[in-house]
Amino acid sequence: MLEHIKNYYENSDEDGRLFRDNAHKVEYLTTIRYFDRLFKPKSKILDACTGTGKYALYLADKGHAVTACDLVEHNINILKSKPEADKLAHISVCNVMDLSQFADSSFDVVLCMGALYHIRENEIRRQVISECTRICKQDGIIALAYITKIGAILANIDADLSNMDDLIKVLDDTDETTYFFCAYPSEIDETAKSCGLKKLYNISTDGITYAVNDKLNSASDENFQKYMDYHYLTCEDESIIGASMHGLWIGRKI
């Protein structure tokens, strides 16, 4: 499975994904809004699934001490090649299932912004979250990004509904052809709590953007901002979270 994941990211535009168009920016803008709200000044942060460093570099620019690591060496090489990479405290390849290179209670904030997209087994998800919890300081913040079941289905329905049999497999996680795992928000909540975390927020980072992609991408800057204002007002609503493509669970180590 690890090799399949590495191959996927080596052949996708991960570096441009969050900025491809307005519809993709919704996830990024919502995420950093909550980071700015919650992270104390000059926090020591581990971005454990950094990808090509979009969040890590943003947080470093905000004055935080950021260590960035990722499972995919291809992503790390892209990050290291960026002129602003020297703003980061450290960059390395790592597997979030085993963060033994970091001591207990090393960080004020630990970000897991991608691993849960790919881990089907609940015990391994618990292992990942437990590792993030171990290296986080008492009362520190942990952020877990995930993909929702309903959002993934709604976003990928063919125009003639011909792929419904395949999409229904997402509900009971029986689709063996995909490298992605989708969860109900309550599943992430329950697993995180079982690892000793207290929920602060469970938000829809991109809402139902898949339903209005074309409208978002053709909107003026002014009208796009109005949409974002609406999205910020609703992204914590439980009726939206389950239908969002991407969710973000943010909690505190207790």
Features:
7-stranded mixed beta sheet; 254 residues; 11 helices; alpha/beta; Rossmann fold
Rg (CA only): 18 Å
Q: What class, by secondary structure content?
A: alpha/beta
What does the overall shape look like?
globular
Overall mean pLDDT stands at 94
What is the number of domains?
1
Low-confidence stretches: none
- Alpha carbon gap, first and last residue: 33 Å
Largest sheet: 7 strands, mixed
| Count of alpha/pi helices | 11
CATH topology: Rossmann fold
H and E string: HHEHEHEEHEHHHEHHHE
The top level CATH class name: Alpha Beta
What is this entry, summarized?
By secondary structure, this protein is α/β, with parallel strands linked by helices. Helix content is 41%, strand content 19%.
How would you characterize this protein structure?
It is a single chain. With 254 residues, the chain is of the alpha/beta class. It has one domain (2-253): Vaccinia Virus protein VP39 (Rossmann fold), CATH 3.40.50. Helix content is 41%, strand content 19%. A 7-stranded mixed sheet has the order 3-2-1-4-5-7-6, sandwiched between helices. Helix 6 (149-155) runs antiparallel to helix 7 (164-172). The chain is globular and about 50 Å long. The two termini are 33 Å apart. The mean pLDDT is 94.
